[in-house]
Specification:
The complex is a heterodimer of chains A (about 375) and B (about 625). With about 375 residues, chain A is mostly helical. Chain A has one domain. Chain A is built from 14 helices and 3 strands. In chain A, strands 1-2-3 form a 3-stranded antiparallel sheet, with helices on one face. In chain A, helix 4 packs antiparallel against helix 5, helix 4 runs parallel beside helix 7 and helix 13 runs antiparallel to helix 14. The longest helix of chain A has about 35 residues. Chain B is of the alpha+beta class. The termini of chain B are far apart. Chains A and B meet through helix 7, helix 10, helix 12 and helix 13 of A and helix 1, helix 2 and helix 3 of B.
């Protein structure tokens, strides 16, 4: 059992980078919502971050082995809440994703599924002591992921459901596979594609078509992609300055404080600002990976790498969408996008990474 | 055994490895993940490089076009005033609807058409018409919005609304009611595609409203203003956020006409329910005091886009209301031509004071019998009696002595056979037949017999009412013709055309015309006004030679056209009026029309003079109007 060391052992570099990114995010939320109905979003985000820091502290203090033991409880609790969401969740723009809480806040369980899934997969994989996974393991892990993913897809929230896959993929990748299984997985994926297409909602299909050819319907589904590209391009090298981006300020850019916050940032801060932010995200990612490398045991390594994989996936899909290189999926940008559930779950995950770091000498 | 042993050894090894729980087993894969992360970041950076560094201009421009909307500020046209400064044509404020094609969603077209009571196909055609114009240029799709339609546009400004619609303030032409001066003023309309392709309209663009007829067309450049533009920053719902630039519209300049509304209204009333035209000129300067053509059209129907059914009705009307008969009806002048034949006779010397003809009610020339309009004949007729009683036989003889070419020379001298040059579009020339003309037109010799009917204003001879007023006015002035014009402009005072005439001859003819109105037996007694020396000449013409009417008669009983041309006062003419009543049968039927106008002129003059006298301080005398003009 790992021994708790001291607060000084926390990964302060990781925390600093995360807070800087969050601060830039709050500034961008302020700028993007100026004079709109969302004008109070920036200070709400501040509250979320404060709560997030407390949760991070909690997630770091309790030994992660204890957390792994409790993981199934959280897992089933969240699965139950996903069922509740489907049954009586609040419907916002065609999707049921939130459970209303006291004080006008809403709880989005699908975000927290990510955290628990990381724990559940780490827990399962740390028990597998072989060099590679057996077919039985793959099935169990797949089922573990597919259950919440299916429920989230029902909401329907394809983006979030898809974001569970990289956690699974990361775990399987690290645990090792037989080459026969790799071939089998590729085959299943190829066969599942046309079936999956039929399961998609119409607007999801439109988004995918629009991604492939945005000019086909410039005022419909392609609108968001085109407006985002215009915003990014108009930012140029140095950007238009805070609160000066016409695409952001005149609302041509859709949801510039949540999913498209990075377009708004790119318009107002330009290529230079983008390089700085991507640099920060890269440092954050590498810091997490570094914590995985120094983990005391496999369980810690799996937790930290799960967080790293999830972060990379989010960056690729969200920022890729901003520059028109990924379809519009509605995945928030970690630490920057406005949204309590997202901010809380990411700070909890950073707490888990710290948890692993604090107990790196603990075997 | 061996196999079992080795198996268990393997298991032991695995258990030992598991006990170690080495987290480093995946270090190679973690390194691989780091490279993957690097690749992802480079992929993302290249995306930004492409957009922000390689070609940011394209996107800056598109961002601008997104948010900057150029809205036209429509310039009001100048007002049209009468000679006293009274407003004839005004503007009134209204809202027009413009459509931004850049933001147009095709599925919204039916919604827009339904909400604004537009024909959907018409709207689509209209959008199609502008396909060659840049898409950011908005087009006007409806004028004169009703409050309900404005509410429709305002109600659709939300997210799911119609951001492609925008209201602009516009000015609509407000023409006088009851078709007053409709033909003089003309109307405005949107420039047509055919017009755009002609050199006259090279400077115009689709959607421009231009003068289509009359003064509106002739003085379009003067009346039209220059549209301004307002550049505004708009958000994604098309709501204005900030005005970026403002180029104010330059309003068109007002235009003062020579028309006197008082006389115009009198002339309009006199022609009420009749077909024909009235022209009143000031022979001392060529100013047109009144010009009426009936039947008329309502120019207000053109002020916005004219409805197709209204247009169809106008152009299919056999009476052709769009024709300005005052300058476009080319008809035989009948006996109103006789003073000119008399002038020619006197000037060339083929007749003199002692020349007399006996009229038995007709005469034979070149083997053909020509009737006089009075069956019993006029007895012995001299020049004076010939004019006063309009004896045809007298003028047959004068014409016969003159020959066609001398008649033509004098007809052309007084202004027949060519445009007077009035400032209105599409003036007709009329026809003055001559031997040369016949050779040119028909490759035939002129027969002396044809001269006889021309001598009484029939045959191939045709004139317009304006030409007749112009000719007689100039003759009454002793051979001084001022070009007729509708716009008061002292700058453009043009020297008159002067013919060297023997004043004695002119006086004889004027005396005859005085007799027509004032002597017993005169044909124009109905034009008499007590206290004013009105001179005039009646005329009635058969329609046989009239090409314009031939095509439009359509079963209607052909009645002779009634003409009257008169001026006053006798010695120093101030006004000359020509009236044409198509189907009025006898010249004397047109005489009251002329009398009404002349009477209105002198009544007004007397009224103004009384007002002048009543005012003890003459420095407040009216600056405009007939009373202040210097008497010649």
């Amino acid at each position: 059992m790992a021994r708790y060391r001291s607060a000084r052992e926390m990964d302060w570099a990781l925390l600093t980078i995360a807070l800087v990114i969050t601060a830039v995010g709050i500034l961008q939320i302020y700028s993007a919502t100026l004079g709109t109905a969302w004008a109070s979003a920036w200070w709400r985000q501040c509250v979320y971050v404060a709560v997030g820091l407390v949760l991070m502290w909690l997630a770091a203090s309790v030994d992660y082995h204890t957390l792994l033991n409790q993981a199934p409880i959280y897992y089933w609790a969240l699965v139950a809440s996903l069922v509740v969401v489907l049954a009586l969740g609040k419907e916002v723009s065609g999707g049921k994703r939130w459970i209303p809480l006291l004080g006008g806040f809403h709880f989005q369980p699908s975000e927290f599924v990510k955290v628990v899934l990381i724990l559940q997969i780490a827990r399962y994989l740390s028990d597998v002591k072989g060099d590679h996974l057996e077919a039985r393991d793959l099935l169990k892990l797949g089922a573990l992921t597919a259950l919440p993913a299916a429920l989230v897809m029902k909401q329907p929230d394809l983006g979030t459901a898809l974001s569970y896959l990289p956690i699974l993929a990361m775990g399987i990748f690290l645990a090792g596979l037989r080459w026969q299984h790799v071939v089998a997985l590729v085959l299943i994926a190829a066969l599942a594609l046309p079936v999956g297409w039929h399961l998609l909602k119409d607007y999801q299909k439109m988004r995918l078509i629009a991604f492939l050819d945005p000019s086909r319907d410039p005022l419909g589904s392609g609108y968001q992609v085109i407006q985002s590209q215009i915003a990014v391009g108009a930012g140029g090298m140095w950007g238009k300055g805070v609160t000066q981006g016409s695409q952001t300020q005149l609302r041509f850019l859709p949801v510039p404080h949540t999913d498209f916050i990075f377009s708004a940032f790119a318009e107002e801060h330009g290529f230079v600002g983008v390089l700085v932010m991507l640099g920060l995200y890269f440092l954050l990612l590498m810091q997490i990976v570094q914590n995985a490398q120094v983990a005391a045991d496999r369980a810690g390594m799996y937790i930290a790498m799960g967080v790293a994989g999830l972060l990379l996936f989010h960056l690729l899909v969200n920022i890729g969408m901003v520059v028109g290189r990924m379809p519009v999926t509605g995945i928030p940008l970690p630490l920057m996008s406005y949204g309590g559930s997202s901010i809380l779950s990411w700070y909890i995950m950073l707490g888990l990474v710290n948890n692993v770091r604090l107990r790196r000498f603990g075997v | 055994m061996d196999k079992e042993f080795s198996e268990s050894a393997e298991r032991i090894e695995a258990r030992q490895r598991a006990l170690r729980d080495d987290p480093k087993i995946a270090s190679g894969r973690i390194a691989l993940f780091q490279y993957l992360a690097l690749a992802v970041f480079l992929f993302l950076i290249s995306g930004f490089w492409e957009l922000q560094v390689r070609n940011p201009e394209i996107y800056s421009e598109r961002a601008e076009r997104n948010s900057i909307k150029a809205l036209p500020i429509l310039a009001p046209r100048g007002k049209i005033l009468d000679r006293d400064g009274r407003v004839i044509v005004d503007n009134h404020s209204s809202f027009s609807l413009i459509l931004s094609r850049e933001h147009l969603k095709p599925e919204n077209v039916p919604i827009i058409a339904a909400g604004l009571n537009l024909d959907q196909q018409e709207l689509e055609r209209r959008i199609q018409r502008f396909r060659n114009r840049p898409r950011y240029e908005p087009i006007i799709i409806k004028e004169e919005l009703t409050p309900g339609e404005i509410a429709f546009v305002e109600a659709h400004r939300d997210a799911n609304g119609l951001p492609e619609l925008e209201l602009v303030h516009a000015y609509r032409r407000l023409y006088p009611r009851n078709c007053v001066a409709a033909h003089v003023i003309g109307y405005v309309g949107e420039v047509s595609e055919a017009e755009l392709n002609s050199p006259e309209f090279i400077r115009y663009e689709p959607g421009d409203v231009i003068g289509k007829a009359g003064i509106e067309r002739q003085y379009d450049a003067h009346l039209r203003g220059v549209d301004g533009q307002r550049q505004v920053l708009v958000d994604n719902l098309g709501r204005e956020r900030r005005v970026l630039g403002l180029k104010p519209a330059i309003p068109g300049k007002n235009l003062q006409l020579t028309i006197d509304l008082d006389l115009q209204v009198v002339a309009e009333l006199a022609m009420e329910g009749r077909k024909g035209a009235v022209v009143a000129l000031d022979p001392r300067n060529g100013e047109v005091l009144a010009m009426v053509s009936r039947p008329a059209f309502d120019p207000n129907k053109f002020a916005t886009r004219i409805r197709p059914e209204d247009w169809k009705e106008l152009i299919s009307n056999p009476d052709n209301p769009l024709l300005n008969r005052a300058i476009q009806a080319q008809l035989a002048p009948g006996s109103t031509f006789k003073p000119i034949v008399a002038l020619a006779g006197l000037e060339t010397g083929v007749i003199d004071d002692n020349f007399r003809v006996r009229c038995p009610g007709g005469a034979t020339f070149y083997g053909r019998y020509f009737k006089c309009w009075v069956k019993g004949g006029h007895g012995v007729v001299d020049l004076h009696k010939g004019i006063v009683q309009s004896c045809d036989v007298f003028f047959y003889n004068v014409g016969n002595r003159l020959g066609i070419d001398e008649i033509a020379r004098y007809a052309e001298m007084v202004g027949f056979g060519r445009k007077t040059g009035i400032d209105l579009p599409h003036e007709a020339e009329g026809v003055v037949p001559s031997s040369q003309w016949k050779m040119r037109m028909f490759r035939q010799k002129w027969y002396a017999g044809e001269t006889i009917s021309v001598a009484i204003g029939q045959g191939a001879l045709t004139v317009t009412p304006l030409q007749l007023a112009y000719a007689i006015g100039g003759l009454a002035m002793g051979g001084v013709w001022y070009r007729p014009h509708l716009v008061k402009d002292p700058e453009r005072r043009e020297p008159p055309r002067v013919a060297k005439l023997n004043p004695e001859n002119v006086v004889k003819i004027i005396h005859g015309m005085y007799g027509v109105v004032n002597e017993p037996g005169g044909t124009g007694a109905r034009a008499r006004i007590p206290g004013i020396s009105v001179c005039g000449k009646t005329g009635s013409s058969q329609l046989a030679s009239n090409e314009v009417l031939k095509s439009t008669k359509l079963g209607q009983v052909l009645k002779d056209n009634a003409w009257f041309v008169g001026f006053a006062p006798c010695e120093s003419p101030e006004i000359v009026v020509a009236a044409l009543w198509e189907g009025g049968e006898h010249g004397y039927m047109a005489a009251p029309i002329v009398r009404d106008v002349i009477k209105a002129y002198f009544d007004k003059k007397a009224r103004l003079q009384r007002a002048l006298v009543a005012q003890s301080t003459p420095r407040f005398g009216p600056s405009l109007g007939t009373a202040t003009r210097v008497q010649p």
